[in-house]
Each structure stands twice: as C-alpha cells, then as structure tokens.
Amino acid sequence: MAEEKDYYKILGVERNATADEIKRAYKKVAIKYHPDRNPGDKEAEEKFKLAAEAYDVLRDPDKRARYDQFGAEGLNGAGFGGGFNAGGMDLNDIFRNFGDIFSEFGFGGFGGGGRHSGGPRKFKGADMRMKIRLNLSEIANGATKKFKVKKSITCPDCHGNGCQSGHQPETCSKCHGAGYVMQTQRSIFGMVQTQAPCPDCHGEGVVIKHKCAKCHGEGIVQGEDIVEINIPAGVQEGMVLNVQGKGNAAPHAGIPGDIQVIIQEEPHPELIRDENDLIYNLLLTLPQAVLGDTVEVPTIDGKARIKIEPGTQPGTALRLRGKGLPSVQGYGYGKGDIVVNISVYIPEKLSSEQKRHIEALKETSEVKPNEGVKSKIFKSFRNYFNR
Ligand SMILES: [Zn+2]
Ligand SMILES: [Zn+2]
Q1: Residues of the chain below pLDDT 70
Q2: Ligand 2 ion: nearby residues, β-carbon < 5 Å
Q3: Ligand 1 mean position to 164 CA, how many Å?
C-alpha cells in the first residue's frame, strides 16, 4: 500500500479542526505556494496542488468522514479503476473550484482575468451518481455489475473532435495554440502583463471551422452506454466508490467525468451484519440445549453444521472463524466470523403430562445453578457487553 498522505498535516490543522479552521489553513498554505508568488518553482506547485487536494477532501463532510475512517484509499474504493483526484487535479481545476478563495487576496483564478498556466484548456465531462444494491454474497465475493446508462457520449460521426468528416480542428491564429493571450494592464505598480484565456478559442488553442452536423461541433451527443462497474469485496451500506472516467463524455474530446457509486445493502433474511462479522440467532429447543445435538446454520453461500454440546446455555456465542466478510481494504486484513448466538425456546403450551415431568424436576438439585455455574454465566454475560 502506498504511503498515506496526511491531509491534516498538509494543511497544518488538528484532526478535530472545524470547517472554518480548515478553510483558513488552506488559504494560508495556498497563498504561500501560489504559482504567482513562486513562478517556475515546481516544488511549490506540487505543494500548492497537494494542499488543494487536502482541502477538497477535508471541506466535504462526507469525503472527510471516509478519509478519517479509511484513509486516502477509502476515497477511491480500494484499487478501483483509477483513483480519486490525487495528482489529477491540475491548476485549472484548482482555480475553478477554489478561485473565490484567492480572489479575496488579489490573485486571479482561471477565467478571472488572472493567470492561466498548464497549456490549452480541456473540458471535463459531468460526473454521475448511481446507487447499487448488493446482496450479502455479492458483498462477500465482490461483484461486477453492468448497467445501461443514458449519458453524454463521444459523437460517433466525428469521434469527438467536432469537425465535419475530412476536417480537423485548426490551431487558433490569435493565440497560436497556447490557449491564452498576454494582456498589458495599468496598475498601481505600473504596467503589468497578465495572461488571459484567448477570446477566439476560449482557451482551447484550436478552433473548429467546419462543424460536425451531428453534434454541432461539440464532440458529444446524448446516448446510451453499457457501464461495467467492479465492486470490491467487503463494501458497506453508504460507502461511495468513485469510478474514474465512466461518467459523461466531455466536449471536444476532453476528460470524461466520473461515476460515484453509492452502495446499498440488501438485508439478509437470517444473518445480521456487524462490521465484518455476521450474527446468527440460533433458537434451540429445550431438549436440544439439554441433551446436545448437531444443527445447521446459514452461511453466506450455503450452510454449515455445528455441534451443540449437552448443557449449552442461552447467550453462548459460538464463532465460525473466517466465515464472515472480508475487509474492503483487501487481503491481509483478515475476514470476519459468523457469530452464532444461542437462544433456547421455552415451550409455551404443554400437556398436563408433560408438565408433570417438568414438575418432577423442580426440586432436584441439578436444575439449580451452583455458585460456580452462576459466576461462569455471569462472566460470559459480561463478555458479551465488553466485546
Ligand atoms: Zn460530431
Ligand atoms: Zn486562441
């Protein structure tokens, strides 16, 4: 596993920092490493990007909770077709998302009349969200699910470049493909040169002169796609997996959006999930508990036989080691157990003859727990709550 990034450390805040503290801390770090202050400094740029990544997670209560519980791995759902924004967040994304923070300090954001670095602009397709319902067997084994989804797809006629057949996007003559132009502005410091998105190509560096008739030059059309999603074993209700690049296609052959998959658990009729353990309540008859027996209990994909010792007390927990769910973090993190909780059914209606048999037991010493038995039962009762 890759070394964990400590987002709190990157921003220099405590783990229990408030949203406001996080925002202020991010501002401080971002301004220190802002590219306008550190022109050409790659290390500062990396720190600037890392701080944005940290802020992007910690400002969102949902992402922050997942990060706290699972670390950065939890955000992309354990080796799930690519990852979260790490490294994928370029300067344009940062200025677009957090530009308001910088504007207060006189720095520009993308499209805000300020700098534009990193070459021509690329479009990003919109993200999608979908819910996936899984049964216990799918959660235990992992699953591959296929869905037909309506979304923006790459235009089949022009393959996304937006041009009529036989034509190609042409390099913008105003900015010569750079996507930005230099502007000279008067300021209190004198004449200042700044970069601004090119007005002719809107920052893309290319123009389309002969537009594709199907997509009107956009490079995308509304359509349907079969999306295949791999779900790792051990996921839980409410977990969100980010599947990179399977969302809406982007205009002009840009970067496709992501799909956020929200996990829903289908309750099992007999097994109750407790983290990675599965609890089963086994109801024995009075003679079974007294005399012992061999019984079947349900497992994830079938049944297991277990032996009930004579004199088994209600409240006893029997563990079928490793028969529970795997950890979503993968192999090496072990598997949970099936915990069989013993209950005993006390008959509610007996014939008078049956009652006489019970009556006969009433005053015998064997039906009364001695001090040793009492303390043993109390111990297991206490263990149950301390578990
Ligand atoms: Zn087209
Ligand atoms: Zn241009």
Answers
A1: 1-4, 73-90, 92-93, 95-119, 387
A2: 172, 174-175, 198, 200-201
A3: 7
Pairing of strands 259-265, 240-243: antiparallel
Minimum-distance ligand to the CA of 120? 2
Q: For residue 116, which ligand has an atom nearest its CA?
A: 2
- Give 162 Cα–ligand 1 centroid separation in angstroms: 5
Which ligand does the CA of 221 lie closest to? 1
Q: C-alpha distances in angstroms, 249 versus 128, 213, 219, 279, 334? A: 11, 18, 9, 44, 39
The whole-angstrom separation of Cα 213 and Cα 233 is 45
Residue pLDDT, tens place only, 343-377: 999 999 999 999 999 999 999 999 999 999 899 88
CA separation for the pair 307, 106 (Å, rounded): 74
Q: Domains of the chain by range and CATH? A: 1-110 (1.10.287.110), 119-169+208-266 (2.60.260.20), 272-385 (2.60.260.20)
Angle between helices 61-70 and 42-58 (to 10 degrees): 100
- Is residue 132 within 8 A of residue 263, CB to CB? The reply is yes
Ligand nearest to the CA of 179: 2
Q: Which amino acid is at 67?
A: Y
Query: In this structure, which ligand is nearest to the CA of 178?
Result: 2
pLDDT digits (tens, 9 = 90+) for 283-317: 999 999 999 999 999 999 999 999 999 999 998 89
CA atoms within 13 A on the CB side of 332: 3
Residue 216 Cα, ligand 1 centroid: separation in angstroms? 7
- The answer to whether residues 315 and 284 touch, using CB atoms and an 8 Å cutoff, is no
* Paired residues of 221 in beta bridges: 153
User: Residue 202 C-alpha to ligand 2 middle, in angstroms?
Assistant: 7
| 293-298 vs 303-308, strand pairing mode | antiparallel
CB-based neighbours (< 5 A) of ligand 1, an ion = 155, 157-158, 212, 214-215
| Ligand 2 centroid – CA 197 distance (Å) | 8
Tell how far the Cα of 254 is from the centroid of ligand 1, in angstroms: 14
The 3-state DSSP class for residue 249 equals coil
